[in-house]
Amino acid sequence: MSTARRVDPVEDYLATLTTSLHGPARAKAAMMREVRDGLVDAVEAQTRFGVPRAQAARRAVLDFGAADEIAPSFQRELTIAQTRRTARVAAVTVPVLVVCQLLVHVVARDPDWRLGALAVHLAAVATASGLLAVTALVVTGPLTRLLPTPHRLPSAVAWTASAAAVGMALAAVALGVTSALSTDWPLTAFAGVLAIAAHGVVAASARECRRCVRAGEGN
Amino acid sequence: MKADAVRGHLDAMLLAVLEPGPLHGYAVITAVQRRSGGVLELRTGTVYPALNRLERLGLLRSRRQPVSDRLRRCYELTEAGRRDLAGARSTWQEFTAAIDAVLGLTASARRVT
């Protein structure tokens, strides 16, 4: 008995394109829904002229263009959407890093120089990440018609957000250790939990942004 | 005419076919083909990301609305889109006038030579 199954060219094409694209789930889903609608329309238009459905589906996919040739222009839009999302997440959570930095700085009044050095580094990471996030939001938002989006912007946002996520993880560890030794432990422990939560959100968004950048380079 | 020849003019053509009113993606593609008398071949897969980009630039806006019993993403021009289209038309007229003159397709150019 034959186990071969008939593959719908449209569904096969959509699956290939979906696999090759990365970006915000909602934006990607809207994009793929629109592509599906367009292909279904193209098939229906040809079947109305008497073309058999299978042939119409193959022709619609052919007219759409090879997935590997079409994917880069879709990916570019998704990468910019993800860059904006990561920049927004960084802009909102960087203040958490600043608060952690201040707490570490206050606690660092004791003789341990390592906490003081960590506070300085966290401040530097927070400043760089915050400034770049705001710049990315302005360049891809209000100024998008006036300035071309810099080619390296998504990569820069992805890596500074990754650095901010690492900073948040380090701050969480430092605040955890400090909580164990400090009399103000409820405050530092709360800040530590906040830093862990912020780390989770920023790290996930930065990781997706890096995937988008890699997908754009690979296409 | 091949898709490569269309590249560079795609944005203006998309804005132009949306000038009369909102259309969904496939209707935009067929409108370009119909207006060109079937001469222009669009690789349909290039149109959807271009519409997305024009929306991101604020030249189009989109919303889901029912078309033929299905909810479809329909695009329409914004005020910025109309201004951009007017600019693109003006630039194109200047460009084609200059090329016509060089190719000797205008009466004044033929008199000069």
Unreliable runs of chain A, pLDDT <50, ≥5 residues? Answer: none
Q: Measure the end-to-end span of chain B.
A: 31 Å
Largest sheet properties of chain B: 3 strands, antiparallel
Q: What share of residues of chain A is helical?
A: over 70%
Uncertain stretches of chain B: none
What does this molecule look like?
The complex is a heterodimer of chains A (219) and B (113). With 219 residues, chain A is mainly α. Helix content of chain A is 81%, strand content 0%. Chain A has helices spanning 9-20, 25-47, 53-64, 67-107, 113-139, 153-181, 185-218. In chain A, helix 4 (67-107) packs parallel to helix 6. The longest helix of chain A is centred in the middle third of the chain and has 41 residues, at 67-107. The two termini of chain A are 40 Å apart. With 113 residues, chain B is α+β, with helices and mostly antiparallel strands. The radius of gyration of chain B is 17 Å and the shape is elongated. Chain B starts with a helix and ends with a helix. Chain A binds chain B through residues 30-31, 33-35, 37-38, 41-42, 45, 63-65, 69-70, 73-74, 76-77, 80, 144-145, and chain B through 24-26, 29-30, 43-50, 52-53, 56-59, 70, 72-73, 80.
Spell out the key features of this protein.
heterodimer; A: 219 residues; mainly alpha; 7 helices; 81% helix; B: 113 residues; alpha+beta
Layout of helices and strands, plus pairs?
The complex is a heterodimer of chains A (219) and B (113).
Chain A: H1 9-20, H2 25-47, H3 53-64, H4 67-107, H5 113-139, H6 153-181, H7 185-218
Helix pairs in contact in A: 1-2, 2-3, 4-5, 4-6, 4-7, 5-6, 6-7
Chain B: H1 3-6, H2 10-17, E1 23-24, H3 25-35, H4 44-56, E2 60-67, E3 70-77, H5 79-103, H6 107-112
Antiparallel strand pairs in B: 1-3, 2-3
Helix pairs in contact in B: 3-4
